[in-house]
Amino acid sequence: MTSAPRRPAGNPSRDRSARLSAGGAVPRGAARRGNRGRGFAAMCVALASMLVLSACTVPFLPAPTAKPSTSTVDPSIAASAPKGLEKFYSQSVEWSSCGDGLQCGKVQVPMDYAQPGSAEITLAAIKLPSTGDKKGSILVNPGGPGGSGVDFIKDAGTTHFTEKLRANYDVVGFDPRGVKDSAPVKCMTDAERDAARAKVFRKNTDEGLAAAIAFNKSFAEQCAQQTGPVLGHIDTVSAAKDLDILRAVVNDAKLNYLGFSYGTFLGSTYASLFPDNVGRLVLDGAVDPSISNEELTAGQAKAFEKAIHTYVASCQKQNQCPMSGSVENGVQEIRDLISAVDENPQTAKDGRLVTGNDFVNGLILPLYNDQSWPALTQALDSAFSGDVSQMMRLADLGADREPNGTYSSNSAFAFQAINCLDYPMVMDTAGMRAEEARLIQDSPTFGAFFAYGGVNCKDWPYPNTRTPAPVKYSGEAPIVVVGTTGDPATPLAWSQSLRKQLENASLVTWEGEGHTAYGRSNSCVSSAVDDYFVDGKLPQDGLTC
3-state DSSP call for residue 424? Predict the structure, then answer.
């Protein structure tokens, strides 16, 4: 439901939304819902159907009527196009009805901004039209990297955003380059994805690490062959340049933007590249752009360790909690259960093998939203009794695997591909072993499953394109950063750090549990964000909700 911020083995960075790619656990942000690609509402519906979670229900809000239209860019907006990109900034977009009051369109952007005339790719976009007097558009990114903004608006457009916001703005989602319907990263068939998830690599042994490296090398070759040259151009800087074209084609002189989790990294990158084009930006559940992949991983490992303790403490106050004794004793019982499944993978009711990676991915997913903790309790209760099927279903939700065996997104592939371009990683054996030891010390429950992220990118066909550094923002428009005290995927310290780096910004802190705040917290947060977007009222820096 939106780090790493992140809805994939080893562990790339940021929004670790409990996803799997090549045979390993990547608890990282969202969605990270588990994965924000589908949005909290979609996860709640799925969990409710499986576990009857009334806490996830949302009030019905009618969708506006959408009429097909063509957007033509105002000449003054088109005139601001960077040299060589004029045709992209001045393009007309056909918006056609795509159900439930929504409009869908396609936007052309250069594949390679260094050679904008060489090749083009198409971005998928979706619009939820405003219900009142339109002030402009708000572009939305749900996280990942790899989350589909189109799916997010389809699943949660009328529930995640307030009536006040929707009355004043078109809410526009898009699939960033490499994601789902926008020049997607392609690597495996659905059957091959199932097989990859079932693999077990003992990376703490030389033989297991070599096998994991060989598997990921083959996987990378598949991605390169099936995706083509765009695989080398799905970095976040290129996506931020796409964002400016999207701003122009929705006819806004300034960018209004709401980014969750990884979407904050995309938004802060935009602010550094186009400071004069910043309108009203809200960055919720921030990723700190100044820290390394290894620092991101360590921060998340500690935050998830804190989250599992908080969950167990809450569970033990309820009737029929499966964890007994003290909080630490209850957490140790979960660790022992993880170890048992990891050492001897079990079979779910559908006949699939449940590995330790699957179990941890299922365990992590409900930690993104405390309203989903009852689902975790039920899944753990069954697992302690010998049935891991519910935990596997949670892992499937994080991986976007449907009950019929199909996968509804390519987010695991995009996640890995974008991270390999965005971050240099420790890839030597000694360095990865040392990182594993630190992670296990910081997070006895999850640390071992967060280790060996460098394996994913060791043989990636394209080198990383970015060095982590503090973001530099020189614009006059203030930016709002939102952080959550109990966020397991993007720790509050990252939002605090980003606010300092931006300088011209205001920090809003929600005292709550789970990943991100807007759309799932309280009226204090929603009012602060809505008043900023609609009335231009900047929330007081340091506001605590």
Answer: coil
